[in-house]
Batch of 3 targets.
Target 1
Amino acid sequence: MMKSAYTIFFVLLISPLLLPAQKPAAYYTFDETTLLKDVIGGNSLNQDMYSCSLQTTGSVSGKGVSSDNDNCILVSNFFRNGTGARAFTIEFLFRGKQFLYLSFPVFNLKIGFQYAFCDFNTVSASAKDEWRIPLNGSGIGSYDYWADGNWHHAVFKADAAAGTKEIWIDGQTIPAFKKDKLPRSNFVFDRSDGFKWVKGLDEVAFYNAALSDDMIRQHANEIKAGGHYTFIRNTKVPDRVAVESETANKTINTPQSVDVKEFAPGYPNYSVQATDQLKAFALPRFPEKNPMNRNFPWLDISYLHRELPGNGGKGFGKLNPQKAVEMVDEMASNWNYYIEVPCLRQDSASAAATYRDPSSLAGSLVRYANAHPELPLSTIILQAQNRPVHAGFDRNLPYVSAQDLPDNYYLRGSNGKPVKEQNRKWLSPLMPMDVIQKDALTAQFYLRQLTHVLKRPIDIINENGEVFGHTRPESLLQSDPAVKAHMLRTGYSASRYSGWFLNKLDSTYRATIQGYPPLRRSSFSFYNVTAVNSMYWPDYAIRKNVNSAFNNINYSTPDFYPGTPRNWRLAAGSNNGYGALAEGRQKEMAMGVTLFSPFISAGWGKETDNVRPAQWLGLLKSMMMLGADFYYVGYFNVTGPNGWPDGAGPNDPRGYVYQVAMPVYAQETAARAFEFISKGTLLDPQKGKDRAYTFRLDGQKENQLIMARQLGKRYLIYGSVQPNSNLMGNGQVEESTSIRIGNQTIRFNIRRQGSVYVLDLSGASPVFYQLDSWHQYEHPYFWKQDFEIEAENPDNINTPGNNLIGTETGKSNYDFTSFTSYIKTSSIPDRVSYRFIPRKPGSLYCYVRARANGSSTLPIQISGGNNMRASVAVSGKQWKWYRVDLGGNYKWQVQEGQQQTLEIRRTAASIEVDKIMITNNSQIPL
C-alpha cells in the first residue's frame, strides 16, 4: 500500500557517528501481526495507559496508526530514566496538522508541531535549551507544507559532543532548522515519554546516535518509494531528495522572493499611478437592490491622490486638486464610498478662504460635493486635535487633555488635591461637563464653517475619539473618596464605571455638536465603540448606543488592523486579527448588535509586510460573516521619531491603492447574501475553545478559516486559506477542505481570496453554488476584464432557491470539489438579469454555456446603449458554449462606464444555463 508523496522523519540518536551505529535501538513499522511491536528489540508501544484506542490507516509504506482522542499518549518509554545520553535521533512519518513527542511528567524533551511553529526543546546536565522555529517561510519552512495532508518524513537529532540540534523534513534541512553552540553536556530525560496528538504516525525509529545526513536522505528516498528503512548505507541512493521545494526562504529580500502578481504593476518600481489603477480595476458587481451602506474613506485624500514622478519614485508627489477630485469621483461613483470633504481645523477667516478657493484641495472637493448631491457626504473630526481658541475660548489645546483645570475636574485624594498617576492628572467621572461642551462647540465651529459653503447636508460625521484610552484601574478610581462612594452606590466594576464615564463624555460631546440644526440629521459615529478586547477598553454594553443607528442597529466600530499576514489569526499588541474580532463580536451579538462597521486596514508599512490583496479580501469576507455591513477604510501615513518611514516621504499610493477596492469586493459578496448576514445564525461549533476558534468550523488545516451561517435549511459557507508570510510558496492559493454540517461531511474548495457558497438543503437534493467565483488571487490590476457570470447569481434575485437552481457533482451528494450549478429557465419567475459595466469602449461578444433536453430556443435581451434581442438554439444534454447572435451581428459596441443588462426570460422548454461570458474575444473555444 503506497503512502502519499511526502513524509516527515523524526530521528533520535545517542552515539558516535559511525556507519555500524546507524541501526536503531527501536523501530516500529506498524505492519507486524502485533501492531505496536518493536521489530528490533521486541518491546511494544503502550496504547492502554492513556486510552489511545488506535486505528490503522493507510500510509506510504504500509500501515500507520491514528487516534481520534486528543488526550491519547502513545507511550514509548524509550528514554525512561535516561541520563548521560550524548546523542539521540527520533525519526518517523506523520500526517496531520499537529503532533507532539515529550518526556513526562517533566518535559525535559519536547518535540512538537502545531500552528505555526515547531518546538525542539532539550535539557542537558548543565542547561535547558528551548528552541521554537516559526514556520513562516516557504517550502519545508512553511506550516502549509507540514500540514498539507500528505505523509511527511521527519528527523529530529541532537548531538551533545558537537553542540548541535537539527531538524530534517522529507530528506531536507535548511539553515533555520539547524542550531549550534549548545552546551556539550549529556541530555537528561524523565520517567516516561511518548507521542501525543496521533493523527497519523508510522515508521518510528529511535537511535542512540545522531543519524548521518546521508542515511536521513536514504530513508527519505526509501519511504518515497513505498518501502521501509534500511540501515546499511546504499551509495546508489542519490544524496538529495526530489521534493516540491528545494529551498525555504525566511526573508523577503528580492522581488523574486514574492509573487509579483500580488503587488501593484511594476513592483518594486511602480509604473501605474494610483488613480489610473483604480479606474482599471474590475468593478464590483452589486445586485440591483444593494442593501449595503457606503464605506467611509479614512484614507486621507491629500496623500492618496498624489502622483510620484517616474517608476518607483519617492517623496510627496505634487498636490493636485483636480486629480484628488478624479479619485474621489471614482470612489463615490463606482466603489460605494461616501464623498469625504475635509473639515478644516482653522480660524474662520482662513477656513473660509480655503473652502472658497477653487484651486485648493478642500475648495475643489466642496465644489464637487455641491455638484453631486446624489452622492452621500462624510467628514472627519478629531477632538484630540481641536484648538478651542479658534472658537473664541481661552486655550490652544483641547480641554479634555488639559492639566491646568480647577481641582474639582480631576480625581482627588482624601487631602482634596488632584491624584497623579503616570505623572499626570486624571479627569473625574463626577466632573462638570462644561469643558467637554467647549470641546464640542469647537468641533461644531469647524463643522459650521464647512456647512456654510456646502449647499447640501453632511450625511455622516465620524469622530476619531482617541482621548479616553483604556479602562481606569480600580485603584485609581477609588483613590478619590467621592468617586469610590459613587462606584459603590452604582455597583459597577471598574470597566463598567469607566464605560459609564466615557459614555457621559461622548454623549455630551455628540449632543452639543448636533445641537446645531444643520447637523441634527447627520449620522454620527465614534471610533472603537466595541466589545473587542474588552479586557482593556471601557464597558461596551453601557455605551453601545452612542453611535447613530443603521438598519435600526447602533453599529459597533472596532478596528481590524492585522498589519502583517502572520497576525491574521489572533493579535499582536494593537494589531487585531480574526480571533480578537470574533470574540468581541460574540459578545456584541449577544447584546443584539447583529451588524457592525469596523475600521480596517491591510497595513500602512512596507508593502512586503502589508497583507496582500487576496489574503485581505479573504479576511474581509470573514468580517462579512461576523456581520460587517460597511467599513471605515483606513490608511495612515504616519511619521516616527526619525520622520517618514523611507526617509523621503509618505508611502507611494501606487503601492496601497488596492486597499480601496478589496472592502468593496467583500461588500458585493455580502450584498448577494444579506439575509444570511442580517437574519441567519452564525454557527459556533468550537465554542469554549481559545478565541482563535470562535465561530470557526474545523477544516483540514489550522490556516483554513471556515465559517457558516444558517437560515432555516440553507447555509452560507465561507472559507479561505490564510498564509502567515508574503513569501512565495508560504501557502496554497486554492485547496480542498471538508467540514461537518449537521450529520453530513461537506467537501469543497477554498481560496486565498475567500470562497463563499450557498448550500440549500431544503429540497430533495442539495443545491450548492458560489457567490464570488470571479474574484482572483492577484492584485486587482491583473484581474480579467472579461465578465464570466455564474447564471445562478442573477442581479434581480438575491440567493434564489432550489426551485430555480440545480447542482450536479458527478461525485457523492456532498462532495462539491467539482460541481456545476445552473438555472432552470422553466422555473424563472419572469426574468433573470445580469448587469455589467465595461471599463473600456469597444466591441463585445456574448456566449452562454447551456444544455437542453432535446432542442429548444433560449431568448436573450441586452439593454444599455442599444436594445438587442437574440434567440439561441440549444440542443443536447451535454454542456456546450453557444455564441449569441445579437440582431444578426455577433458583436455590439459599448461605451466606457455604460451599464449593460442581459436578461433571460422564462421559457416553457427545459433549458439549463450554467454561465454567461461577455468578452472582447470573438472566438472562445465552443
Target 2
Amino acid sequence: MAVYRAYRNSLRERGLLDPRAVNAHIAERIDEGALPAAIGGARELHVYSIASPRTRRRILAALARQEEVEVHLYLPLEAEPDPYFDALADRTEIIGAPGSGSPEDGRPRGGGRVGGAGPVQVQPVPDAAREMAWVARRVKEVLASGRAAPHEVAIVARSGRDNTHRAYRALRRAGVPATARIRTPLDEVPALRALLLVLRGAGRNWDYRSLRALLAHPYFDTRVDLRSIDAIAALRRVVGLESWTGALEQLRPLVENKAREVRGRGLFLDRVEKDIEAFGALREVLDPLADARSEADWIDLTLALLGEDRGLFRLRRRVCDPVEERWEVVRSDQRGILLLERLLREWRELDHPDDPLPPAGWHALLGKLLQANELVLSTPGQKGVQVLEAHDAALVPFAHTFVVHANDREFPRAGGATGVFTDTERRRLAALGLPLAHRDETLRRERGLWRAVTQQAGPVCISYRTTDAGGTPLLPSLMVPSHEDAAELPRIRRPSDELDPVTPAEADRRAAFAIHRALGVPDPTERPRIAPARPERVARAIVAAAAEIHRGPGLERYPGFLLPAPAPGPGRAVHPAFRPNPWNGHLRDPDVIRELERRFHDDYRWSAGQLEAYARSPFTFLVERVLWLEGVEEAEEETTPLTFGSVAHEILERFYAEFMERLPVALEASVEHRLAEISDEVCAERAEKGEWLGVASLWEQTREGIVAAVRNYIEWELGHMARKGECPIETEVGFGFDDERAMLAGTDIRGRAARLRICGRIDRLDRDAGGTGVFHVLDYKSGKPPPAPRFDDATALQGVLYAQVMADRGYAMGSCRYRSIRSPGSPLNGGLVRFGEERYERALTMALSIPARVRAGCFEAVVSRKGDWWSWDPPREVRRSDAQLAEGHRFDDFGDVAGG
C-alpha cells in the first residue's frame, strides 16, 4: 500500500491521473462535499444501468454516506444475491410487479431471465458470417413490418472488438441505418500499422521484404519504383540501406547494356536513375532509425515522424484521402494518430532508463503500447439500430433485442487469474474486506450482466455459433435456454425462393442459382425470371462460369452435371479443358495473332529449353516467354539447383578441355590436385563477379558439396570411359549464336515442311571406341536425368535437337544421352535415344511443330502426359486448371482453327 500511495502522490505532483483510480477520486470529492456543485445544485440524483458494483464500491459507499443529495440507485431484480447490494436491503424498494418472486425476500427464484415477459428465440448458426446475415435479415423484417423504430432495436455482443464491427457492416450491407461504438486496438489502426512497418524494417536492417512493404504501402509517397527493387532481390539477397544503394548503382549498367539478368523486367535507364535519386531522399529519413538510442529519444523521434509537417513521407497528408468514400478509415487514422501523440507525450514525462534501445527493441515496445490501448469511435449520425456491447445495453429497454455470439466462455466470459494472487488467495482477501474479485464472483457478475441484457419486455433473439473459423465445434453458453439443435441454419449457402433477398449480394446469388437450376434441367420449358441487384455482376458470373466449364476438368468427376456424360470407349469426346479453346489459352484476336507471328517469325532463334517449356505447359510458356510475367521472388538463401549445375558444368568443362588430349584412365593424385585447383578458380571467379551464390555461411558448405560431387563424378567417368574406350573430343560446343544460323529442317506432325532456327551449347561430344567415327551428345544434369519416354510427347527434346545439329554439321551421330553429376552411373546413360530411331524422328517432328502452334495462339493450360505441374508454374488460381493429358501429345490439335 505504501508503494501504491507513493505512486499516486507522484502522479498528483505531475498533474496526472491513473484512469484506474477515477472512481476513487470521485469518491474522495463526494466525501469532501463537492457532489451538490457537481450536479448543479439538484436535490436528487438518479443512477441507472449499474448491473454490478465491480470497481464502484467506493463511490457507491460515498454516495450512501453523504446527506446533501437524495440518491436513487436502480438495480436489476436479480435471482442471485450480491453481498454488496444485500447490505443495502433496508433501503431497497422493488418497483413494479415482483413476478415470480418469493414474498419472503422479494427476490425471484431460479437463475434464468428475470422481469422480462417477451418471448425468447434461440438460433444456432454455422459461423460468424451466417450469424450476422441472419440477424440483419431479422432486423430488416422487424423494421419493414413497422413493429419497431430503428432506435428501438438493439444488437448486443459481449465484446466490442469483433462482433460490433461485423454486426454494423452486416446492417449497412442490408441497407439498415445503424449506430455503434467501434473499438479498435491501436495496432490495428491502418496509419499506426504503417508506422510500425517502418520501425520493423529498421529493426530488420531493411531486408527485401521489409523494404518492399514500405515502398508498396499506399500511405508512403517514396517515389521509388518497385521494379528496380524486385530485380535486385531476384539476383541476390541485400540487407541494409547502404547495400541497397550500391545495388541500385550496379543495376544501372545492367539496364543500360540490356543484360540478360534484367531482360523482360520492364526496366528503363531513365527510371532507374530516378529511383537512385529517390532512394537517396528515402535514406535521409530512414538512416536515423538505424541507431540505438534511449527510450526518451525514441519517443521524441517517433513524435517527429508523426509531426504536423505532413509527417513521415507525407503520412499526415495521405491519411486524409478516402478510398471509395470510406471516410471511417480516414477518421480512424486521424484519431489514432492524435491518440498516439497524446500517449507518447504522457510517456515522455515519465522517468526513462538511459540504456540504449535498438530499433527492434523500440518496435516491440511501441507495439505493446499500441496493442494495450484502444481507439473508440462512434459511427456518424448516432441514429438507427443500436449495436452495443453488453455493459452498455444492460437495463436499457428495447422493443427487439438480438444477442449474438452467445457461446461458452464468450458470454458469460470466463475470467482468468491475473496478478500475483491465486484464486484461493483472492477469496481469502475478499473475505477480509479487500475489493478483490475471484472466479466465482466474476462468473456471478457475468450471469448478472446476461440477465440485465436479456430481461426485456419485447422479443429476445439469442444466436450462437456451432463452429469457429477453423471448423472446430463450439458450445452454446450455459445461459442459453434449452432449444432444438435441429434449428441450426443450413451449412450450405443456397439461396431460398421462400425468403426475399436482404442485401444486393443475396439478390445476385439468388439470380445466379436460378440460372444454375435451369441449366440443370435437360429440356427446360421456360426461361428463369431473375431480378439481380447488379445485373452486370451476374453477367460477368455467367461468362466466368462458361469459362470455368471450358478450362476446368474438375467437372469430369461428376458425369452429367451441367455437361453430357462422356461416351464410353476410346472414342469418347474429349473434355474442352484438355484442348485449346477461347476459355483455355487459345488466343484468336487478329492483332494478337499478328504480333505472335511478328515475334516468333520463321527466323526466330529458339532454344531447347524454350521448346521443352512449351511442350510441357503452353500456358506457362505464355506467361513467362510471351508476356514476360514473373512472380515477385527473392533470391534463395541456399544455392539454387541452377547455380549448382552451372558451377559444376564449368568445372567439368575446364577439366575435360585441359585433359582431353591426354585423358587419364583414373583420378591420379596429380590429376586430382589439378581438379581441385580448377574448382577453386571457378568458385573464386564466380564470387569476384558478384554472382549470388547463397548466404556466405551456406555457400561454403554448398561449395564443398559441389566440388565433392564433381570429383566423384569424374572419378567414376574416367574409369567408365577407359573400360568402354570412349573419349571426349569437344566441350561446350556452341551453335546458333551471334550471326550464325543453325537451322533444322524437316516436316511437322501434320506432314508439312517446317524449319526451326535453334541455338544452344552442347556440354560434351564423345567419340566411340576404336575410332569408328560414331559420336554421342552428352548433357550433364545436376539432378535426375530425364527418362527416354519423355521424348514421346516432347517433354524432353534437348538431346535429340543437339544430335541433329551435329549431324547436320557432318558428324556421324550415334545417340544422345544424359548423366547425373550427383549420382554417377545411376543410370549409366539416362534418356538414351539412338540417332534415327522412331522415337528420335518423332521427337524431332514434334519440335518442328511447336513454332506454328505458337503463332496460331495455342497456349492451353494443360500439362503434357510425361510432364507435371511444378511449384514454379503459375498457381492454380491463375491457370484455373490442373489438366494433364492422359495419352498422346498435343501437337496435332490447333483448337478450333482448322489446319492451324
Target 3
Amino acid sequence: MPLLQSRLIGCAAARRALSNPSLHNSIRRPIIARHAPAATLSRRCYAIDLTSIDNKWRKRWKESNESMKPSDKLADSKDNHYVLPMFPYPSGTLHLGHLRVYSIADVIARFRSLKGDKVMLPMGWDAFGLPAENAAIERNVAPEKWTTINMAKMKEQLELMNGSWDWNRELSTCDPSFYKHTQKLFLMLHERGLAYQAEAEVNWDPVDKTVLANEQVDSNGCSWRSGVKVEKRNLKQWFFRISEFREALLEELEALAKENAWPERVLAQQKNWLGKSAGASVKFPVLAMGHDIRAAIEVFTTRPDTLFGVQYVALAASHPIVAKLAASDPELQAFIDTIPGLPADSKVGYLLPHLRAINPLAYHEETPDATKVSLPVYVAPYVLGDYGEGAVMGVPGHDLRDNAFWKEHHYDAPVRQVLSASEDESTTAMENEPFVEHGIMSEHSGYFKGKHSAAAGEEIVKLLEKAELAKPVEKWRLRDWLISRQRYWGTPIPIIHCDTCGSVPVPDEQLPVKLPDVDWSETRSGSPLESSAEFVNTTCPKCNSAARRDTDTMDTFVDSSWYYARFTDPHNQDQPFSPEAGKTLPVDTYIGGIEHAILHLLYARFIFKFLASTDLLPQYTEETYKSAEPFKRLITQGMVHGKTYIDPDNGRFLKPDEVDLTDPNKPKVVASGRSANIAYEKMSKSKYNGVDPSEFISKYGADATRAHMLFQAPVGDVLNWDEGKITGVTRWLQRLHDQITAIAAEPCEKNTSARDYLAAKHGRIGSASAKELAQWDAEAGIWRDVQRTIASVTASYDEVYSLNTVVSDLMILTNTLADNTTASPIVKREAAQALITMMAPITPAFAEECWDLLHPSSPSIFESTSFPTTDASLAELVRPRVQPCAVQINGKVRGVVNIPPPPAELAGDELRDWMVKEILQTEEGAARFSVGQYDLRAAKRAIPVRGGKTINFVLK
C-alpha cells in the first residue's frame, strides 16, 4: 500500500471512487475528517495513512539515527537533560499504562532536544524478581529464557511507539555485566558498615517462600505480590543500614518540595514512612504474681499529657515478658500461635492473669486515686514489636485504636478522659468519642488541671525524669532495609562464609558471582541456590579453607536503586560508572507511578546519597553528599482506566461478545436486550476492559495514539480510555495535512521572513485598499496567534502536567491557518513551520512528513530546526488593527462591527464618544445605528466594557 495512496490518484479519480462502490472499495480509507465527509472528500486529493507514515519515518530514523541524536558522552553542562521513565519489568506485553509513561518521557526528551539540549533518554529492563521466577515455574521454562524472550517482544512494542530511545545504552538487571556492579555496590556498603547480617523477626511469604521488607507488606499484613497473609519468622538476614541516612532523607524532602519538583503526595508518603516522632520513653513498674519479672515495661509515647488517662498496657507478642510467660502458659502460647492469621487491625487480646502494671504517676502525691489503680496487661496483635519498645499504654479516652480495644474487652467499664477542648468542658460524658487533639487538662489530671496539654506533657516528663521513670526520646518508623531473598532469580549476595574467618566479601576480581544452573523450580523452603553444591562449596579468600557461599539473593529493589546511574556509562566493565560519567547525574526528569513512593523512590534516594559519599560522584563533597538527590524532578502520571460494560440485572462484567455495540453510545446486553451500564475501571482481565497498545497503534498509528492519550486528560489525572474519541485527533491531523500540502504547493519567496514581510507591509498600510487591509488583518492575526501559541505551548511542555493543552492549542492554531487562506504564502508557510515544530515532540513521524512536504531536500526536522521562540519585535502586531465590538441596545446585542482597539489612555465619556464615532464610521454601523429606533445618538447613556469589545446603549 503506498504511503499516500491518493498522491497517485487525482481529485477526479477520488470523485469516481466515491461514486463507484467497486472503485471505492479498492481504495483504502484510513482516516477521513468528520468536518469533511464523503461529499467534501471530492475537494481533497488524498487521505493520509498514518500507520504508513509511522513505518516510513521509523525506518529513516533507524537508518540515519537523526530522530534525536543520542549523546554518547554528556559533559558536565547546563545544556544536558537526562530524561528517564521508570524502566519496565519484562512481563512480555506492554499495556496502556506503559504507553502513557513512555509517551510522556519521549515528548519531554524531544522537546528538550529541539530546545538545543543534549538529551539522554535510555531504556532498559528491570528483569530480576519473583514475577519472572513464578511465571517461569508455571510455564516450565528457565526464568532467564522467559525473560529474554519477553524483553525482545517488548522492545519491538516500544519501537512501535515512535520513541527516540537510546538503545546504545540498553541494560538488563539480570545480565551479569550489570549485576556484577550491583554486587560491587553491596561490597562498598559492606566495607562502610552499611550492609550487615543479623538475626531478626522477619516477614515470611508462605506462598512465594521468601522474606519481605516491611515496605512490601500492606496495611492488612498481606504480601504485596502474592496477597497472602504474611507470617513472622526469626531468620538471619542481610540488611542495608538505611537508618544511617534517615535525617538526610527527611530533611531533603523540603528541598524536593520547592517549585513543586516532586508531587506533594509522594513527599507526604515518604515523610510518613520515615515516621520521625518526638516523645518520651516511660517506665511502668510491674507487679508479677508467681513469676520472676522485675523489669519495668517501657513504653514510647508521643502524648505524655495523656498519662493520667492510661487504663491498660498492651504488649507485642514478641515482647520479652510475653516470651517468658508463654513458656509456662499453654493458653498464652496458643493465642500467640493464632496471631499470624489475624487481620492487622484485630482488637483481640490476651489478658495476662498474673501481671499488673503501675502508672508511674501513681507515686506523685497529688495524683488522683483513679490513676493509682494497678493496670491490666494484655498481649495484643495491634502492638508492633519493631516500633518503640513493643509496648503501648492504652488511653481509651484519647486514642481511637485504644478506645476500640478497651470497648472490646471492657464494654461496660467507664472511659476516663483527662483533657478536653476548653476549660469549661473539663468533664466530658463517657459516651463521647475519644478526644484526640491537644487541649486543656481536666480535673482528672491532679496538679496539672487547667494547663494546656502540650505544656503539661513536657512538665510530666520532667517530673518523671527526676524519678528515673521517663526520659525524652526520638523514634523513627523507618527500619533498616532487609534485602535477603530466598529465591533464585536475583543478584547473588557476594559473601563467603568461613568457619575460621566468618563472613568474607568476595574479592573484586572474582565478580560477578554468577547464578548457577539449578533446579530453581523446586518448591521447598530455603534458597534454591542451596541445591547447587558446585555453587555453594568454595574456598575462603582469606585462608583458603573450605567455605560456603551465601545462598540468598538480593531484593530486586537494590537493582532499581541505582540503575539510573549505570545508564550514564553502561559498558564500563571496571566500575559501576566512571566519575566523569557520574557528572551527568542527577536525572533531570523522572517519570513513573506514585505506587513507588515508599519503595523504589526511597531506596534510590538512600543509595544515591551513599554514592555521593564515594569517588564515583566527585561533584559532591563530605559536606554536601547527604543533600544529593537522584531525581531533580519527579512526574507521576495517572492510571489508565478502561471502559467496562456491566449487566444491570446482576452487576456482572460483560465479555465483548455479550455486548451489542451497534450503537456505541447505547450498548445493550445481548442476552436480555437491556441497556448495559458503563463504568471506567482499572484495566484487568476479569473486567474484560484491557487494551493492547500494539493493536491500537496498528489501527490508528502511533502518532495519533500518542496525541489522543495526551489530549484526553492532564498528565497527573486518571485517563478514561475511550477509543471512539480518537477520531477528533485523526481529523485534526488530516485537516492539518491538507493545509500543509496546499501551502507547500503555493509559490513562495523563501528568502523573505514573515517578520520582514510584515514590517515592510506595515509601512504601506496607510494607503492600503479595503482588500489589502483585510489581507493585512488576516496575516497579522496569524502572526499574533503563532506568538501566543508558542508562549502557551512552551509553558505547557515545561510544566509537563498540562501536555493536554499543547494539543488543544495546536488544534486552535490549525483552525487559524484554515480560516485565513488569503494570507501571504510567506506568513502561512512560516506559521505552518512553527506549528509543525511545536507538534513534533508529540507526533514526530507526522511532523517529519509535513516538514518533508515543505522542505523536500532537507534533513530530519529534529536536525533542521529548533523549537520556536516568541518574537515581540513587531510592536505594531501586538494589537490588532481592528477588533470586533458587540453593540447592545438596552442589554441586547443588535450587531457586531469591527473598530480599532481604543487608545489605552481613554476612559469614561471620552472612551464613549470615541467608540460612538468609530462605530458610526463603519459601513454596518452607519446603516444600522444612525437612524430609526437604534440611533445611537439618541442614547441616554452608553457603557463600554471589556476594553471596547462591548458597548451597551440605553435608549428610551
